[in-house]
Amino acid sequence: MQKSKLISLLKTLKKDELKAFDKFLQSPYHNSSQKLLVFFRLISKHHKNDYTNTRLDKEKVFKKIYPNAPVYQDSNIRNLMALLKQQIEYFLFIESVQNTYKGQQKNSDGPLE
Question: Are 56 and 1 in contact (CB under 8 A)?
Fold first, then answer.
């Protein structure tokens, strides 16, 4: 998991962006999966360690998210990883649009037309 595209993307986020993304994931408008929020919170704890902790093993994370599952299912973790990566990219897009809009408002004398 440490060498995944998801972890590479998470490494680019600053602490305040991680907090804002957590709020983003809490919104039912943007996320309907409680497991995705739990997954994000489990792995984002390792941001300060640059995501190198051995606790980021897929099977260990799986057991925390699916404690009653009889066997490890890699497809579940891969799906969560892909969905989380997609959500981060969407979040960053929204942040970029908002920052652009705020910049345009500052440089404008009146309302945008």
Answer: yes
- DSSP state, 71? S
Model pLDDT for residues 77-98, shown as the tens digit of each residue? 999 999 999 999 999 999 999 8
On whether residue 61 sits in a domain, the answer given is yes
Which residues, 6 or more positions from 62, have their beta carbon under 8 angstroms from its beta carbon?
A: 69, 72, 73, 76, 77
Closest CA to 81 of 100, 58, 48: 58
- In this structure, is residue 34 part of a structural domain? yes
Q: Is residue 4 part of a domain?
A: no
Is the pLDDT score of 55 beyond 80? Answer: no
Who wins on pLDDT, 30 or 101? 30
Number of domains within the chain: 1
Judge whether 92 lies within some domain: no
Spatial separation of the C-alpha atoms in residues 47 and 68, rounded to whole Å: 27
